[in-house]
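Crash report, auto-generated. Payload:
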Amino acid sequence: MMNIREEAHRMKLVAPKLAATKEEVRNAALAAIAENLKAHQQEIFAENHKDLDAARENGISDAVMKRLKFDEGKLKSVVDGIAQLIILPDPVGKVQFRRSLDEGLELERISVPIGVIGVIFEARPDALVQISSLCIKSGNCAVLKGGKETTYTNRILFKLIVEALSKAGLPEGILVQAEQHNEIDELLQCEGDVDLLIPRGSNTFVQYIMNHTKIPVMGHADGVCHIYVDEEISDALTILVDAKTQYTAACNAMETVLVKRSIAGSFLPKLYDAMTAAHVTMRGSEEVKCFLGERGKDFEVMAEDAYHKEYTDLICSVKCVENVEEAVEHINRFGSHHTDSVLTNQKEVAEYFLQMVDSAGVYHNCSTRFADGFRYGFGAEVGISTSKLHARGPVGLEGLMTYKYKLRGHGQIVGDYASGVKEFHFKDL
Amino acid sequence: MMNIREEAHRMKLVAPKLAATKEEVRNAALAAIAENLKAHQQEIFAENHKDLDAARENGISDAVMKRLKFDEGKLKSVVDGIAQLIILPDPVGKVQFRRSLDEGLELERISVPIGVIGVIFEARPDALVQISSLCIKSGNCAVLKGGKETTYTNRILFKLIVEALSKAGLPEGILVQAEQHNEIDELLQCEGDVDLLIPRGSNTFVQYIMNHTKIPVMGHADGVCHIYVDEEISDALTILVDAKTQYTAACNAMETVLVKRSIAGSFLPKLYDAMTAAHVTMRGSEEVKCFLGERGKDFEVMAEDAYHKEYTDLICSVKCVENVEEAVEHINRFGSHHTDSVLTNQKEVAEYFLQMVDSAGVYHNCSTRFADGFRYGFGAEVGISTSKLHARGPVGLEGLMTYKYKLRGHGQIVGDYASGVKEFHFKDL
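Recovered output after restart:
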C-alpha cells in the first residue's frame, strides 16, 4: 500500500519542476490524455461496467447510477473539455505587475502554480479527468481521491492519464491516486507538503475535512441559496421551479424563497401550485401558512433557526419579508454566502440587493443554478468556494494559481534607504 | 467590559453598509483622521509618556522603548502615510471582468471588501493608525488589539480616529478596539462574524492563533530567509551584513547563508571577519568549521535539523552546498517560503533560483530586507503572508479585498441550457 505522506513529500520536491515546464509541454500532455482515452475507450467502458454491476448489487439509486456511468457521451464531454482547456491562455508565469523601486532595482509579480493540491471528490469518473486536466494546465501536482463506487473506472482512467503525461515528457510522479478511504486521514496530515485541499461532497464530509487538518481548505460545506421575490416578474415561477428542481442535489439549488409581504397574498398560492406540480414540498412561517388559506392546511410551520437548512431535496423553506432590506438581512444571517437571486423589475431594488448581499454570487432575474464554472465560461471548475479568501464562487484555473515577487538588483541594501543615502522612486514599468 | 462576540456580530451587519460607501467619504474620513491627530498631538504625546514611564519602570529594553515612543517624527510619518493612502486608487468596486454568457445574461466580477477583519498587533502605536487607515480605505470593519505596553497611547489614538470617522459620515461602529488580553481568545471564537484574522508578533504567538481558531488566518509564523552565495559579487559582504543586521528582529532578516563549495575556501574567512565585525555569531556545518581553519576554533557545529531555526538575533547559520540546485533544495526544505536571495553574476544561475525557490519573495543580488509593503511601493502593509492562498508576501490594500460575481438576466433558467433549447455564447465585454 502507498504511503501518502511519503508520496506528498516526494511530490513537493517535484512541484517546482512541473511549475517550470513550458506551456507547450503541458498542452501536449493534455492532448495526449484525450488521445489515450479515446484509443482505449472499450477498456474504460468495460471497467465502468464492473463498477455499475457492483452498484446495482448494492441497490444504488438511479440518480447515482447515472453519475457513475461512463459512456460515449461522457467520454465525448471530457475530451471536449480537454480541448477547451488546451486553447485557454497559459495561467503560469503571467507578469501581474512590474515596478522599478529605484535605479536598477526591479520588482515583478509573477503568477505561479500553488504547488501540491489534494482533491477529494465524489463518485463521478468524469471528475477525475477534469480535475487532473485542470491541475496539469495550471502546473500543479495533485493527490486525487475519488469515490469508492468508481474504483475500477478511476483506476483505468488514471493509468491512461499517467501514461500520456509520461509520453509527453512531464516530470514523473506529478499525479498520485489514493484509493483507500483511510488515506484521506493520511492526506489531512500532510501540512508542509500539501498546499491546498479541495474536498467536494456532502456538508458533513467537507466539515470533517475542515475540522481535521492544518492545510488550507477551499470549497464549501453549505449551499443555502435564496431567491427573494420582490415583484412577480413574468418568469418568476419558472425561475423558482428551475432553481429548486433542475438538480436538487447541487449546492446552487435554491433552499429558501423570500416573498415581499405586499405581494404574498396573490403570489404565494401560485407558488404553492407551481411547486406542488413540480413535487416540491413547501414549509415555512405561520404567516405563509395563513396566506395559503385552504391550500395550507397540511403546511408545516418551521422554527426560525431552521432557515439555516440545506435540503438538497424537493423541499423548500418559504418566508415573508417586508422589503429588500429585510430580505438582505435574512440572507446575510441564514445564508451560506454562496449564491442568491432577486426577482424584480425595480432597478434600485435589484442594485441594492446585488450590493448588500454578502455572497459569492448575487443574481438579478435568473436562476441560482447558473453558479458553475462551465456556465461562467471558465471551461471547467475544481469546485465552488464560499470562502472570501483566495478564490470565491466557481473555481477554475485562476483559483489554482498564486504568485511570487521577483526582485532583481545589483548590490542594493536596505541600510542605504533607512539612513537616507538612497531613496525609492517607485515607477511602474 | 465589552463583549467581543456581540461586537463582532453587530459589526458583521454594518460591514455591507461600509462596503457600499463612496470613495470620497472614505478618503474624507482618512483626511479627518490625519487632521484630528495633528490637532491633538500634545494630548497624544502626554498619553504616550504614561506608557513610556510604565515601560521604564518595568525595565523594558531600549530597542522596545524606541518602538513604543510616539513623537513628532512618528506622527509625521503616520500622517504622511495617510496622505499616500488617500491618493491611491479606490480598491472597492473595480470591475475585474465582464462577460456576456448569452443574450441578456451578463456576468461581472467586482472587487469588494473582505468584511470584518481582526488584527492583533505588536506594541507600536503607529501600527494602530496604519492598520485602521488601511481598513477604512479598503472598506473593511476591524477589531483591533494592540500590545498592552501602549495602552494609553492606543486609547487616545483610537478615540481620535473614531471621532474623525463619525464626523466624516461613515457608519457607526466600523472599528472596535479590544484592550484586554483575554479578548483575544473571544475574538478567535468569532467564526461566522469575523472573516479574517491578521496576527502579527512572535512565532509562538502566531502559531497559537493559527491553532486555536476556525477563522482564516493571514500572516506568517516563521521568517527563515536565506542568501545563497553562488559567486562573490562585489557587494556580497555588504548585502549579507545588511540582511542579517539591519533589523535583526524583522521576519525578513537573513537566518542562513549557503555558500557554493567551490568558493568556500576563499569566501568563508572573509564572511567570518565581516560578520564578527558586525557582532554576528556564525554557526553551521563541520565543513564550514574546517574551511575557517584558525578562525573556526570556537565555531559551533550544529545539527542538520537546526537549519529550521529563526534566530531574530545576531546569530546566523552557515552551510556549504555544491551548487544552485542543492541550494534550492535546502531552501525549499528548511525555509519558511518567505524571502530568499541569490548572489551571482551568472544570469542562468539567478533565473534558475528565482524560478525554483518556492517563496513569496525570490531576489537576485540584493538584501532580503526589501520584503516590505512600503519598500514595494504599496504605501503601507497590514502584514506579510507566507501562505500561498489569497495574498502572498507583503499585504497592502489588495490583500484586504475579495470579489463577488454579479449576474443580471431577464428570466433565464438553467433547464433551457441543460436541455439544449438555449446555448451559452461567452463573449467578453
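Post-recovery validation: Chain B touches chain A through 77 residues (CB under 8 Å).
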